[in-house]
Automatic annotation (TrEMBL):
Annotated coiled-coil segments of the chain: none
Molecular function, one GO term: 2 iron, 2 sulfur cluster binding
Source organism per UniProt: Sphingobium jiangsuense
Keyword GTP-binding: no
Protein name in UniProt: Vanillate O-demethylase ferredoxin subunit
Domain of life assignment: Bacteria
Record flagged with keyword Oxidoreductase: yes
Domain 2Fe-2S ferredoxin-type residue range list: 1-87
Length: 87
């Protein structure tokens, strides 16, 4: 699990191993744009402000993943204990 901080919403969450960040945010009533929920459409891409995503999407290139500027919230996780996103 890891801590997810939704910066603009001013809220923080624990994302358990079996859930995606998008699921946790949606369960809490935070509006996350999602479509395919399989990491292929890019709808759920969100800017990363702090932390390193564990990229599990297929939409970003290797270069984009290595830059760690965005995370696909429908499928990815975090390599760092805290991930702060622009949402
Ligand atoms: Fe399609 Fe996340 S909803 S990549």
């Amino acid at each position: 699990s890891f801590e997810l901080i939704a910066e603009r919403s001013g809220r923080r969450f624990i994302v358990p191993p079996g859930k995606s960040p998008a699921q946790v945010l949606l369960d809490a009533g935070i509006d996350v744009p999602v479509s395919c929920e399989q990491g292929i459409c890019g709808t759920c891409l969100c800017d990363v402000l702090e932390g390193t995503p564990d990229h599990r999407d297929l939409i970003q290139s290797d270069e984009e993943k290595a830059s760690n500027k965005q995370i696909a919230l429908c499928c990815s996780r975090s390599l760092t204990p805290v991930l702060r996103i622009d949402l």
